[in-house]
């Protein structure tokens, strides 16, 4: 990926301490000479990431704060201005997948947490940072949503809603700033990261094998995202499962969700069982 438009740019990236965010940080720095400003809450992981970059560690700086809090973004935007940081690209990657469950089994706190991390954090970051990003000749915002934004699955009501909201926000803002800023939306399918860490008890072997079968390797997912960004694609759907969900929803509508539920029930996987009790 030589001679990309984002070579040597300054990137602000949320959820930088693990998974897709960590891999993107490493690639942007090592392969494209970018300066990455990572945002996450786990400072230990951020320090480990910085150390792993070796002599390129000086191209990585980080801030630790909760991305779901509006005031944190306002304070960070003020820091960006005061320190004369000139960001070119904002990548909103932070997100959580609540446990698979029926809607009424979620607490209000769980619903709020998912909406604030998956949706409001992106709304807050864009509102706070786009004014300074638009000053760049390479102004860009890339929001990483989910295939759940394309087709909702039983047991993912709040997750699907938060990602669908992010998709709608991205689509609208893209049209408003089409001539001023590249705005991309990524809808990845299941990816081999720690995304299932919120599922409570350890996932049983049967479920893990099923997830591994349909999931895309994290390194490959990052490669696809960077390739899509290189070509300034507006909508990026990556992963076999994501494509099936996207096409199925367009062709079959609610029948696609119903068919997915039938497969989840038939799988006998405990992870999904509580959704249909």
Overview of the molecule:
This protein is 49% helix and 13% strand. The protein has helices at residues 19-32, 43-52, 70-82, 108-133, 157-176, 205-214, 218-230, 240-252, 254-267, 270-273, and strands at residues 10-14, 35-40, 60-64, 89-92, 140-144, 182-188, 235-238. Strand 1 (10-14), helix 1 (19-32) and strand 2 (35-40) form a beta-alpha-beta unit. The longest helix has 26 residues, at 108-133.
Concise description?
With 277 residues, this protein is α/β, with parallel strands linked by helices. It is built from 10 helices and 7 strands. Helix 1 (19-32) crosses helix 7, helix 3 runs parallel beside helix 4 (108-133) and helix 8 (240-252) packs across helix 9.
Q: What attributes characterize this protein structure?
A:
alpha/beta; Rossmann fold; seven-stranded parallel β-sheet; 7 strands; 49% helix
Shape: globular
Profile the largest sheet: 7 strands, parallel
Indicate the low-confidence ranges by residue numbers.
Answer: none
β-strand number: 7
CATH H-level superfamily title: NAD(P)-binding Rossmann-like Domain
Counted by DSSP, the helix tally is 10
Q: What is the radius of gyration?
A: 19 Å
The name of the CATH architecture is 3-Layer(aba) Sandwich
Strand proportion: 5-15%
Topology, element by element:
Layout lengths: L9 E5 L4 H14 L2 E6 L2 H10 L7 E5 L5 H13 L6 E4 L15 H26 L6 E5 L12 H20 L5 E7 L16 H10 L3 H13 L4 E4 L1 H13 L1 H14 L2 H4 L4
Parallel strand pairs: 1-2, 1-4, 2-3, 4-5, 5-6, 6-7
Helix pairs in contact: 1-7, 3-4, 4-5, 8-9
């Amino acid at each position: 990926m030589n001679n990309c438009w984002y070579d040597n740019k300054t990137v602000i990236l949320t959820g930088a301490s693990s998974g897709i965010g960590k891999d993107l940080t490493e690639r942007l720095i090592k392969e494209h000479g970018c300066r990455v400003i990572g945002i996450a809450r786990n400072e230990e992981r951020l320090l480990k990431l910085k150390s792993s970059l070796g002599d390129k560690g000086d191209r990585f700086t980080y801030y630790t704060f909760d991305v779901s809090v509006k005031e944190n973004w306002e304070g960070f935007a003020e820091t960006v201005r005061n320190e004369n940081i000139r960001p070119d690209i904002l990548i909103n990657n932070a997100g959580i997948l609540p446990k698979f469950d029926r809607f009424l089994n979620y607490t209000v706190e769980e619903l709020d947490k998912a909406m604030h991390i998956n949706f409001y954090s992106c709304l807050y970051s864009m509102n706070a940072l786009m004014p300074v990003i638009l000053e760049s000749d390479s102004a860009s915002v890339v929001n990483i949503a989910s295939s759940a934004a394309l087709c909702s699955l039983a047991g993912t009501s709040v997750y699907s809603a938060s990602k669908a909201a992010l998709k709608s926000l991205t689509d609208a803002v893209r049209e408003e700033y089409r001539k001023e800023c590249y705005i991309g939306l990524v809808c990845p399918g299941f990816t081999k990261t720690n995304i299932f860490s919120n599922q409570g008890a350890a996932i049983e072997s049967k479920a893990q094998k099923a997830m591994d079968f349909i999931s895309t390797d994290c390194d490959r997912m990052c490669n696809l995202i960077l390739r899509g960004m290189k070509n300034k694609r507006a909508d990026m759907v990556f992963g076999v499962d994501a494509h099936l969900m996207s096409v199925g929803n367009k062709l079959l509508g609610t029948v696609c969700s119903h068919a997915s539920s039938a497969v989840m029930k038939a799988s006998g996987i405990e992870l999904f069982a509580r959704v249909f009790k």
